[in-house]
UniProtKB/TrEMBL annotation:
Record's keyword terms, sorted: Membrane, Transmembrane, Transmembrane helix
The keyword Transmembrane belongs to this UniProt entry's keyword annotation: yes
Record-annotated membrane-spanning stretches: 338-358
InterPro entries: Aim32/Apd1-like, Thioredoxin-like_sf
Annotated protein name in UniProt: Altered inheritance of mitochondria protein 32
Keyword Cell wall biogenesis/degradation belongs to the record: no
Alphabetical list of Pfam families matching this protein: Suc_Fer-like (PF06999)
Domain of life: Eukaryota
Classification via Gene3D superfamilies: Glutaredoxin
PANTHER family registered for this protein in UniProt: ACTIN PATCHES DISTAL PROTEIN 1 (PTHR31902), PROTEIN, PUTATIVE-RELATED (PTHR31902:SF12)
SUPFAM superfamilies linked to this entry: Thioredoxin-like
Length: 393
């Protein structure tokens, strides 16, 4: 087993390594990041909108993982299942009226995705048990005819799904950026308590390696329909905004947005309308610091990214609180108004009582002055007033 290895810009090394060897590895990682990672010169050089071809359905084949995929997994003799799928699709793609993309993604047993599972968006359907022998039947029933497949077990996909291009053998840039993005996504999802609501999976080539980090998000939109949004030039600093705005609120991060599932769109109005064309806005690459990034307790379809509440607590929130900031915050404002009004009334009451005592004391003083033998117009009278004000008499 090697003492050290580099995955993207991250370094894992044994404490037994000499100090000069550790420094060499760190320097190599820095150079690798500057050339292929998030610091490479080509970042933010192009306007990303419109860099995704139009499509209406996305089919993912779960197969092994990104560390084992050859450069062209769909053409590898060592990987017969994806090769068979690619060949059948090439022969039958003109037989379907639905524009379809087919992509290989990793199989993750721990989250219920095994080799041969097929995930279909926006249908939110999962089929299990695809093998070389039944690929033709699957395409005939599901892809071409739009029917349910009788050759495998059917399930339902729930929540949101993020596919990150990490196909390092195809392009080093995705091999560097992809794993780092997946680590950050899983970290932020864990912090928000959404591990059971959002899945993160590596996928093979989706086009546009020069835009790495590349990822695709399939999640419910504000109207409940499944949307597919493609993002490029994504860095780990952008992950909180993607979770808090795109997934939780349905807001598009425009300056990283490449396109979407459905009719072709060259531009879209999102929460962030500042474009990154020809690198004109390089100073605003950290979306998590954008002033528009706020809490997402009013997330769409019950999804919340609030760190102080669980998903189960947020499922019961009235949907009227999700569409308007006024309706969302009115209970807090009402309580504050009541407290303010109470404070004002209390102050007025205290003033009225004090004024009443003042008037009463003033009247008593005048009556005593009338009875006092000393005349106020005399020097002794003025002295008497001073002594009385000082409380000495």
């Amino acid at each position: 087993m090697p003492l050290a290895h580099i995955i993207g810009a991250r370094i894992c090394y044994s404490p037994l390594l000499p100090r000069n060897r550790r420094f060499t590895l760190m320097a190599s990682a820095a150079i690798d990041d500057a050339k292929h990672g998030f610091s490479r010169p080509e970042m933010y050089k192009e306007n990303l909108a419109g860099t995704v071809d139009a499509y209406d359905r996305h089919v993912f084949l779960c197969y092994k993982n990104h560390l084992t995929w050859p450069p062209r997994v769909e053409a590898s003799d060592a990987d017969p299942l994806p090769k068979r799928v690619a060949n059948v699709w090439k022969a039958r793609k003109n037989d379907t009226s639905v524009k379809t993309k087919i992509t290989v993604c990793e199989a993750r047993e721990e989250v219920g995705f095994s080799d041969g599972d097929v995930l279909i968006f926006p249908d939110m359907v999962k089929y299990k048990g695809l093998e070389e022998s039944n690929v033709d039947g699957f395409f005939d029933d599901v892809i071409v005819s739009g029917k349910e497949w009788g050759g495998g077990e059917q399930g339902v996909l729930r929540g949101s799904h993020i596919f990150v291009c990490a196909h390092g053998s195809r392009d080093v840039r995705c091999g560097v950026c992809g794993p780092a993005l997946m680590d950050k996504l899983n970290e932020e999802i864990q912090l928000r308590g959404l591990k059971d609501q959002i899945s993160v999976m590596a996928c093979a080539h989706v086009g546009g390696h020069k835009y790495a980090g590349n990822l695709i998000i399939y999640c419910p939109g504000p109207d409940g329909k499944i949307m597919g949004h493609w993002y490029g030039y994504v860095t780990p600093d952008d992950v909180p905004a993607l979770l808090d705005r795109q997934i939780a609120k349905g807001e598009v991060i425009q300056k990283l947005w490449r396109g979407q599932m459905g009719p072709p769109v060259t531009d879209i109005k999102g929460a962030d309308d500042q474009k990154l064309a020809n690198g004109d806005d390089n100073s605003k690459t950290n979306l998590s610091n954008n002033e528009n990034v706020a809490g997402c307790c009013q997330g769409v379809n019950g999804v919340s990214c609030c760190r102080s509440e669980s998903f189960e607590q947020n499922k019961g929130i009235d949907k009227t609180k999700q569409g308007s900031n006024i309706s969302w915050y009115w209970p807090i404002l009402q309580k504050r108004d009541i407290l303010t009004a109470g404070g004002i009334l209390g102050a007025l009451a205290a003033f009225a009582v004090a004024y009443r005592f003042y008037r009463s004391d003033a009247y008593d003083c005048k009556e005593k002055e009338k009875e006092h033998p000393l005349n106020q117009n005399t020097g002794l009278g003025k002295f008497w007033d001073i002594m009385r004000c000082l409380g000495l008499v």
